[in-house]
Design brief:
About 25% of the residues lie in helices and about 25% in strands. It has about 160 residues and is α+β, with helices and mostly antiparallel strands. The protein has a single domain (about 15-155), classed as Cysteine proteinases (Cathepsin B, Chain A, Alpha-Beta Complex). Strands 1-6-2-3-4-5 form a 6-stranded antiparallel sheet. The longest helix is centred in the N-terminal third of the chain and has 13 residues, at about 15-25. It starts with 13 loop residues before the first helix and ends with a strand.
Length: about 160
């Protein structure tokens, strides 16, 4: 699938970058931006100003962000099974993954592809901070960057 991830515009806006990118994937004419998502999420009107107020630069959940854009389908509180990833990728539906770093803190990425390899399937990971990666499914996200656990999966819809 031809998924394009925006870079996150603020340090804690991985959720906004992922949700805006998913919305643009499904609806290229969408007006949702990261700062407009933050305005809506936090009931503010100043998240699109420069400089962005610190009260706007906070984390939020994929579920809530995807509900705002109309792209939330369902959620599971665990790593998605490879069969579920394949199913949604085959339907051109990117998947939002919430990961929590072993050293503390959370992050959000989007899974947008699966590739078969002799040593096991690999998944395409779009990260609004670190960029795109092709990772072995069995070791993601334990071996991703500094190591993490995949705790929540949000499935999307057009």
């Amino acid at each position: 699938m031809a998924f394009s991830m925006q870079g996150q515009q603020q340090t804690n806006w991985c959720w906004a970058a992922c949700a805006a990118s998913i919305k643009l994937f499904y609806t290229p004419s969408s007006n949702w931006t990261q700062c407009l998502l933050a305005n809506s999420a936090f009931s503010r009107t100043d998240c699109c100003t420069n400089p962005v107020p610190s009260a706007c630069n906070i984390g939020w959940t994929f579920k809530q962000a995807l509900q705002l854009t109309g792209n939330f389908d369902h959620q599971i509180t665990q790593k998605a099974a490879l069969v579920a990833i394949r199913r949604d990728v085959d339907k051109c539906r990117p998947i939002a993954a919430s990961i929590f770093w072993h050293g503390g803190g959370g992050h959000g990425v989007v899974i947008y592809g699966v590739e078969d390899h002799i040593l096991g399937a690999k998944i395409y990971v779009a990260d609004p901070f670190f960029g795109n990666s092709l990772m072995r499914y069995s070791s993601f996200p334990a071996n991703y960057q500094t190591g993490a656990d995949w705790t929540i999966t949000d499935f999307t819809k057009p």
